[in-house]
Amino acid sequence: MFPHKWRQLEEARRLLGLPRQTSRAEIRERYRKLAARYHPDRAGDAEKMKALNEAYRLLMDYCEHYRIELAPNDQGADAEEWWFLHFGEDPVWSGKKAREE
C-alpha cells in the first residue's frame, strides 16, 4: 500500500479515536457514537460529520479488501504454540501413538 494511503488510514483511525488494533465492530460502534453526537439533524457539525463519514468509509473499505492469512504461521506464537505447530502431530514428539492403517 502506498504511504499516502497509510496516512489516510491513520488520520481516519485517529478521527474516530480508535486504537491501532481494532475490529470492524469497534469501528462501527465508535462511528455510530460520534455520528449521533455530530449529525447535523441534532444541531451537530456538518463538516465534522462529513469527515466522520469519509473516515468510516475509508476504514471499512480497507477492512473489506484487506487480504488476511488463513494458514497458521510462527509469528507471535508462544513456546507451547510453536512446539505444537512444529511437532504436535508427530507421534514421536507428541506422545500420541501413530494410527495404524
UniProtKB/TrEMBL annotation:
It comes from Thermosulfurimonas dismutans. This is J domain-containing protein. Residues 11-64 form the J domain. SMART domains: DnaJ. Coiled coil: none annotated. Signal peptide: none annotated. InterPro entries: DjlA_DnaK_co-chaperone, DnaJ_domain, J_dom_sf.
